[in-house]
Structures are given as C-alpha cells and as structure tokens.
Design a protein that fits this description.
Rossmann fold, two-stranded antiparallel sheet, 41% helix
Length: 214
C-alpha cells in the first residue's frame, strides 16, 4: 500500500450523490423560464465545471440571453432544496473514518456555501481540514494553482498527494500539477471519458481506497 500525506476529495459524484437535486433545480429553472425540460442524463452530463457552466449548457447557446435570470432562479431554488435527495455514496464514511488521521481536503467546483451546507448536513465536514469551493479562491479545477496552494499550505509531497474524483477535471488537475489521481467510476462523471484519461488508480467503490493507501 502507498503512503499518503494529503488526500484531496471531490464532492459531487464522489463523496455525495447530488444528482437528483441538481436535476430538479435545473428543470425548475427551465420551467420557470418556459423552456423545455432536459433529461436527467443530459443534465448530469453538464455537471462538473461549476453552476455558471451548468446553467449555460442547460439553456443552450440560443437562450444565452437568459443566463443571469436563470442563475438567480437556480441559485434560489437549489439553496432551499440541495438536501432533498442528496446522500452519501456507500462506504464514504467508512473510508473517511479509516483515514481520520490523514490530512483531507474537499476540493470542488461547486459554490463554497453549497458545498459547506452539504458536507455539514451529511455530517462529514468534521473529517476535513478545509473545504474549497467556487468563490473561495479565484480558481476552479483543473487549474494547477489550486493544487500548488494545497501542497504548499500542508507541506505535502507530490508523490504522496492524491486527488480522488469522478470527473475529468480531477484527473486533469492531477496531471497538470504532478500529483496522483484516483478516478471513481460510479459517480456522476462520464465513465468512458475517465477511462480514457489514464488516471493512476481507478475504483468502482470508494471502499477500495482502503486497500490502496495508508
């Protein structure tokens, strides 16, 4: 097993299944603007680059003029409903408990306030040194400056730092910064896209992390 100094976790699609609440808030936004709703699968394919991109993709270029209004509607609705159906993925708390003594960070492109509300609401905030979300720094994944900031702050070695996530931005952030990556294949991210990126490790279930690292 490989020893780790720093473990960086994505949130949506890795630790927590936020899919249905995102879908419901996007479709509420589209309905409010008298636009046609999108399928669950289509909306999930838009997730991973922050709310602004999620709304931009959901509206489509032909409705881009509604972006500001759609952002307002979505943000207000999601703030009230982000815990309606959101749950931890199986075995997440087992793994966080196992690595309780390790320095762990949540690094997400989700807005910081939403990420903090979900982590707190599901009782996992206590396992992490820090939660970094959109708005808490000027950068979003896969910008390597996010990783460099964490390596410096926590005095961690690249070869003993790993990012664990279900999205391409997690793997790309690792590749750009020289740390290790683990792709979780049963989250919200596109499985085939993840397989094509050549992460250092892959898992089907978060529990597998326990046999890979120490």
């Amino acid at each position: 097993m490989k020893k780790m100094d720093l473990m960086i976790f994505d949130l949506d699609g890795t630790l927590v299944d936020t899919g249905m609440d995102l879908i419901n808030s996007v479709n509420y936004t589209l309905r409010s603007l008298k636009f046609e709703e999108k399928s669950d699968q289509k909306i999930i394919s838009f997730v991973g680059d922050g709310i602004s991109k999620l709304i931009e993709r959901s509206l489509g270029w032909e409705n881009s003029g509604y972006h500001e209004e759609a952002m307002r509607i979505f943000t207000e609705h999601y703030a009230k409903h982000l815990m309606d159906k959101t749950v931890l993925y199986p075995h997440v708390e087992d793994i966080l408990s196992k690595f309780e003594r390790k320095t762990k960070i949540i690094l997400t492109n989700k807005r910081y306030a939403f990420a903090q509300a979900i982590a707190g609401g599901l009782g996992i905030e206590k396992y992490f040194e820090e939660i970094i979300g959109a708005g808490s720094t000027p950068y979003l994944k896969p910008d390597r400056r996010l990783i460099e900031y964490l390596l410096d702050k926590y005095k961690a070695r690249k070869e003993q730092t790993i990012i664990i996530g279900d999205g391409k931005n997690d793997i790309l952030a690792a590749k750009k910064s020289g740390i290790l990556s683990l792709a979780y294949l049963n989250g919200l991210g596109d499985r085939n896209a993840l397989l094509s990126l050549g992460a250092d490790y892959y898992c089907e279930d978060i529990i597998e992390i326990g046999s890979l690292f120490e």
